[in-house]
Amino acid sequence: MRIGILTGGGDAPGLNAVIRAAVLKGEKDADTEFVGFIDGWEGVFNENFTPLFRNDVRGIGRLGGTILGTSRTNPIKDFGGPDRIATVFERNRIDAIMVIGGEGTLAGGHELAKLGFPVIGVPKTIDNDISGTDYTFGFDTAVQIATDAMDRLRTTGESHRRCMVAEVMGRHAGWIALHSGIAAGAHAILIPERKTSIEQIGEWVLSATNRGRSALVVVSEGFGLDTMNDPFSIKGLDSVGRPRLGGIGEMLAPLIEAHTGIETRGTTLGHIQRGGTPTANDRVLATRYGMAALDLAKQGKWDHMVALRGTEMCVVPLEEAVGQLKSVPDHRYDEAAVLFG
């Protein structure tokens, strides 16, 4: 069996660990061969790939990013679509394609699978917003990076008795904000799933200040005040036509200062949350995903992806993963809100 591997969408710590695990496990079988497509589906359309042997993946499990490169190419609409993919697969004897990506990449894989392509999925996103799995690799690393940054922000905030606003990634899901905010002891956590008034934010900040604390407010990039209809965006559109989010923290800082009279500073963590080496937890999870994905390919379970439920690996249909984003449920936010102020 000749299996192609590609990484699509945004990068995430742990991608290389998936590739490494699949290749190393596959080498135990004499009839398994791997090739890596360069820059996601763009590499498939351009017939740009490289063989993957044991020496090619040696030591990459601890590296961030992806050795194969990535892109946000649409396999249905771009560069000739399914017909071109079918030609490339047939000419290069590709028996299965292992698609490692987030909701958009997996959705494209699902559409191809419905057309008969041998697609298996591996869920990847720092946002942890893919349905069907409890956790995605990359999330733990992003939370750890954000938490470390907030610990540093708190020391400078306390030195000047300022309120510090830390903006994290997450787009339409507040998982990074929720977990890093709890870990850092934030006095307010603002997520896309829960609109909040500036008055309420001000109350939380003043409550912390009145107790002699310097407030830390954590905000997800997709958060909106109760007076806003859409997420804050001043950076235009991305390559697939979505608004580029970012800047809500800088927007909120002067509003909080005006409402409370407390000097307030905003910091946007941005893409630093994607970079660097994956945490031990993400390396282990990504390794388990890579090995389990190979099992799916060997079993011919097309149009499915590997997932984590509790502590066990399982298999779910791709349709379940791409139907809707996994957002923060009310009860998870409410339990954190007890600690606000």
Q: Overview of this structure, please?
A:
The protein is built from 11 helices and 11 strands. With 341 residues, the chain is α/β, with parallel strands linked by helices. The chain folds into 2 domains: 2-137 and 278-322, Rossmann fold (3-Layer(aba) Sandwich); 140-274, Rossmann fold, CATH 3.40.50. It is elongated and about 70 Å long. 49% of the residues are buried. It has a 7-stranded mixed β-sheet with strand order 3-2-1-4-5-10-11, sandwiched between helices. A 4-stranded parallel β-sheet has the order 7-8-6-9, with helices on both faces.
Q: What key attributes describe this structure?
A:
341 residues; alpha/beta; Rossmann fold; 2 domains; seven-stranded mixed β-sheet; four-stranded parallel β-sheet; 17% strand
Radius of gyration: 21 Å
**Separation of the first and last Cα atoms:** 58 Å
Output the CATH topology of the largest domain: Rossmann fold
The averaged pLDDT comes out at 94
Structural class: alpha/beta
Helix/strand order, N-terminal first: EHEHEHEHEHEHEHEHEHEEHH
Which residues sit in consecutive blocks of at least 5 with pLDDT less than 50? Answer: none
Widest sheet: strand order? 3-2-1-4-5-10-11
Give a count of the beta strands, DSSP E runs of length 2 or more: 11
Helix content: 25-40%
Question: Which CATH architecture of the largest domain would you pick?
Answer: 3-Layer(aba) Sandwich
Proportion of residues in β-strands: 15-25%
| Shape verdict | elongated
- Largest sheet entry: 7 strands, mixed
| Name of the top-level CATH class of the largest domain | Alpha Beta
| Count of the separate structural domains | 2
The total count of helices amounts to 11
